[in-house]
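Reviewer 2 asked us to include a model.

Predict the structure of this chain.
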Amino acid sequence: MSPAAHAHAPLGHVHGSAGARHRGRVSLVLGLTVAFLFVQVVVATRTSSLSLLADAAHMLVDAGALSLTLFAIWFAGRPATATKTYGYHRVEILAALANGVVLCLLAGGILWRSWERLWVPAPVPGWPLIATAAVGLAVNLVAAALLHAGATESLNLRSAYLEVLADAATSGAVIVAGVVILLTGFTIADPLAAIAIGALILPRTIALMSQAVNVLLEGVPPHLDVVEIERAMGGVAGVQRVHDLHVWTLTSGREAMSAHVVVDPGTPGDRVLQDLHVVLHARFGIDHTTIQVETATPPALIQIAPRA
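Predicted model (structure tokens):
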């Protein structure tokens, strides 16, 4: 067996994390969110609206999540060190997981408080709910449009994008509650809208947390198939078989893999490594690879002595 060879496609091939490319938009969304948050808190306090207060609480979490997102983007951009050889890219994933945990707690609190309000209704005016929630809906739709591109590339930005979308939906629920109260005087519409808000938050949050945990456990990225990758690598000229194949996510938009490949005797290792990297990059978008090349042992020549 020949000496092992290694090929590393450095992380530098991808210029900046997916989150870092959208830092300016995240900052703008954070500014919009904080500005409107104060308006919501004032109106919710004066009208005793639980649904508007729930929407304000959700927006407060949005502001915290966006701040955490910006911090994670900045922190993840720090260079690798001797003790952190991959750098701090996983900070973005930890931020997404933290956002998910906070949202789950928020949804639980909203549902509990709304259940209590169902049995003890409080008078809530309709017009302030409608006007405030309408402005909030517009703010959230603008924020969602700003974050949409980054949400397809970064798990951390996807968490912020989903929170903004959920907040837009909660604003819609508050508008509906305000219209119902205005037309019928049915004040229970307010806690019912709050229950709808809590029920909307939970499924998306659980899905987000599941993705973040999969990254932290170094699971295979959902959009990649290990069997297909192994088959593609095995199709490279000179490769006999592939073993010890591992594929995982460093951070959103940055996948990595390692494998051992057994090649035919006499096959140039450098050529095989180059061909493998081209296949992995072009077909699967994997730029950080560690591949050990092993030469297959030729079959031994067995001499059979003639019978006497």
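Residues 221-295 form a domain with the Alpha-Beta Plaits fold (CATH 3.30.70.1350). Residues 1-16 have pLDDT under 50 and may be disordered. We have added this to the supplementary material.
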